[in-house]
Amino acid sequence: MKRLLIVWHSHTGGSRQMAAAAAQAAGRQDGIAVCLRHAADAQPGDVLAADGYLFATPENLASMAGLMKDFFDRVYYPVLERINGRPYALMICAGSDGSGAVRQIERIATGLRLKAVAPPLIVITRAQTAEQIMAPKTIGADDLARCAEMGAGLAAGLAAGVF
Q1: At what angle are helices 99-111 and 66-79 packed, to 10 degrees?
Q2: Which CATH number applies to 2-160: 3.40.50.620, 3.20.20.380, 3.40.50.2300, 3.40.50.360?
């Protein structure tokens, strides 16, 4: 059985919905165990036990969320050189862009020698005012379907030994 670790953080619910959609779809794949962890709870042991990864985070101030950065800070050195070549994918929930968070996580993944197996999925909420940014998010059905497709594809690749 292959293990997919989905690490997420969300302040207003968008990234949580995205991660849940991906986890649900991935969990339907035979031969896959899905481990869904909030970034604050994910540990180096979770990373070492997984065969592949999906990271879901909001973009805050053109950066990944602080708790997602904290996750990478805590696990980076304990797993360095021990997960080389493992596959990963990335989902970003952003108000307008998402590219800053993508760049940061891609650099970290390069340092960990992970292998990107899909282009980053960015969901744009168009939240621009303080009230919109802090308001609870509802991710639309089309975007949730894209998240589910990413989770299913990553799981299928793991199960088939493609990655």
Answers
A1: 10
A2: 3.40.50.360
